[in-house]
Amino acid sequence: MSPLPRDYPDTTGLPDPSGPTATREGFPQVANNPPRHVAFIVDGNRRWARAHGHPVEQGHQEGADNVCRAVHWCEAVGIETTTWWLLSTDNLNRTTAELHKLLDIISELTRRLAATGHWRMRHLGDPRLLPRSLAAALSEAETTTRHNRGPQINFAVGYSGREDILAAARLIAHQAVTSAGFSVSERSFAQALSTSGLPDPDLVIRSSGEQRLSGFMLWQAALAELYFCPVLWPDFTQSDLHRALAFYANRQRRFGK
């Protein structure tokens, strides 16, 4: 797949990379109580492509373009951390042709957002499952954006919630054997997960009408509110985000109390 042109942010109509362009106007309940961390299952790119008579890779590209827009919308309403599930371990079983193009698109998306010098980026997932070039792009983005002042963006690529828990269990077992006085607790287990140091998601949004987590952030999303949006991800708009946030604002989060 040929690389995207250097003027990619301008030619696709994306927001200016220097900061958010969306507003909170008309949504006071969102502005008053935004969730701290919103996690997105960006689903429906392939169905969008087929519905519009386009090749599958165009659906993935439209989905990546919309992630670029959505990070601006999230920042505009005060969301400090977002996580975007771009590729599951199950997705790695897709055809070689589709997977190659999808990985190229994720790699370019990573570089574009990192190049703004605004957001802090982090990779969630197993880099050993990814092509060396994509793993390097994700690692470089995490390193070069570490001291940026914008919100935190996490890309879940080659990610499985079950594998995340298994990896944490292995680490905990090793620490329990090798470290005298080590205590196995909810806190120590959370610190062994790939999301160590990040707040748990308050809200999980899944596009495309599917109503399941599909193994996404199984430990971390235990107390999250779940919002299932019927639109396919490339068609997801700022208004759809505001509807999800209004839903969240109207929930009574008692945490069992």
TrEMBL record:
Active site per database record: D43, N91 (proton acceptor)
PROSITE patterns cross-referenced by the UniProt entry: UPP_SYNTHASE (PS01066)
Signal sequence extent: none
Molecular function via GO: ditrans,polycis-undecaprenyl-diphosphate synthase [(2E,6E)-farnesyl-diphosphate specific] activity
First-level EC class: transferase
Domain of life: Bacteria
Residues where Mg(2+) binds: D43, E225
Keywords, comma-separated and alphabetical: Magnesium, Metal-binding, Transferase
Cofactor note: Binds 2 magnesium ions per subunit.
EC number: 2.5.1.-
Residues binding substrate, per UniProt: G44, N45, R46, R47, W48, H60, S88, T89, D90, R94, R206, R212, L213, S214
Recorded family membership: Belongs to the UPP synthase family. Z-FPP synthase subfamily.
Oligomeric form and interacting partners: Homodimer.
Function as written in the Swiss-Prot or TrEMBL entry: Catalyzes the condensation of isopentenyl diphosphate (IPP) with allylic pyrophosphates generating different type of terpenoids.
Name the record gives this protein: Isoprenyl transferase
